[in-house]
Design goal:
Layout lengths: L6 H28 L10 H56 L6 H22 L2 E2 L2 E2 L11 E8 L3 H8 L3 E3 L9 E5 L14 E2 L5 E5 L10 E2 L5 E3 L5 E8 L2 E6 L1 E2 L5 E2 L2 E2 L16 E10 L9 E5 L3 H9 L4 E5 L5 E9 L4 E7 L7 E7 L9 E5 L2 E5 L1 H8 L5 E5 L6 E5 L2 E4 L11 E2 L2 E2 L8 H13 L3 H54 L3 H27 L7
Amino acid sequence: MSIRVTQQTMYNKMVGGMQSNLGAYMESIEQGSSQKKVNRPSDDPAGTYRILTTRVDMTNTAQYQENVDTANGWLNLADDILSRQVTTAITGLKTLAEQASTGTYTAEQRKIMADQARQYFGQLLNLANTEFEGKQLFAGHKYDQSSFQMGLGVTTWDDEWKKMVNNGQISVDPDAPTDKTVIFQFAKPDGTPTPEGEPGEPLEAGSTYRWSTDGGETWSEFVTLDEKDITKDEAGNPVAYTLKANGTIVTIKTETDADGNTVVPNVKYADTSKEGAGANNGTLLYVRPTAFYQGDDKDPPAQITVMGGSKFLNDLVKQDAANIKAEGTFGKNVVVRIDSYDDKTGMFQYSYSTDSGANWVTPLNAKADDDPNGNGTRLPVPGGYMQLSPAVVTNLKDNPGTQIQIHPSRSDLKYEIMKDTFLEVNSVGKDVFGGWYDGKPAMDDPDNNLFEVVGSFIGYLEGNNQEGCQKTLAALTKAEKTVLAEATRIGGMENRLDMAADVLSFQKIDQQERLSYVEDIDLTELLTKLTRQQIAYQTVLQSSSMIMNMSLANYI
């Protein structure tokens, strides 16, 4: 069966062919202009998806590289401060300590050295307060304020009073002048010393002391501790004593033993016939410079917050934080929810969340009152466990739905240097430089505490204490090791950053190649394609023109 082809049919076919060829030709021209194979999603839907995901990966890689650069700058500065500048200052202090330890130097010469030591102390304080991009290097997470602040600490050679200093029982009024060392010496007006080997006499109303601001060359008149200088509780037990010396106020707190009895400190009276302050001549207190740490820490225990619990439960926690405590190492907040309690089995059912309640791990079971020591219940959670006292356990049995949050002390400032890989770049200043924190020396070992060692050294120099200067020399070496240990840790993180930078560099190249493979044109291939399409289009135009010019009328 034959089909009649009309002029209209021929025209439509020709125009369609021309448009199809012209469309392909224009698409190739657009690709040549943009240098891209995919200019809109409809060009290649699957390729568009790959392009978008690769671009997201490239954006993330660029951010990781920026984080690495920032972290590297942070760590490089911290490394330079600790391994070079701080150690240079310590070397200068060691030189002073070596000189001051010899018997050939006079009190006046040691005072001149004290001026130099104060300059070194100020230099260390400045270094400990160094900023990077407006953030404190050594303040933990509280990087928006100075890591350390100048203050006053106390040095003593009396073993009993050393423990009191370390326990935070002795403090100095922050408004006291810091430009000179004040020495308090417990002594009697008649000069009678405490016999060697005896514990001394209880500190009480009537105890006498004197003070000096020139290293013991001259002393104040004897001061008698008056009732108004003693703070007492309702039962009449002493709570705190106050010593005063020309603007310098020292507060000495008592403590309570396991039986609830007030422990009153003993004082040893000095032999006033000896010149100067000395070191072991009675109970002496050197009030000298130190630095107070203002940042945060990583120290346990984690903080506990009760959410949605009964008033009785909240009151229990306020009265004694030990009623609910968390033991372990927690990298993030953990919320524990008490879901139910089964009287028959004696089991708690509980859940926990590490993302502020967005997702819960449930159900978990723990037997109430299962602690072998009779201390209540332990609920295992990521990083450790939550300890509930018997009183808390009893309350929670009747209060399902109570939530308890474990909030660990966190001081880490972390940068994500690769996907789900974080690097801590800051340091806890009190663990590096020491000083005082939370009302007492920041480190258990005073010889590791750089600010305390240097502060005591200033006190010894201004007090003409040769024995103390000798002790300082060994302490400076030990404190320097603490600083260098942190510098070594930072050096290890710098190496890790270098490796991360290399990986990211290769990763970026790989992503660029993958994007180019999907998105970019092959110029040689495109030019060949354009030539072919141009010839095809010209052929369509010529053949269409010839055909449309033909007519049956030409053969009549």
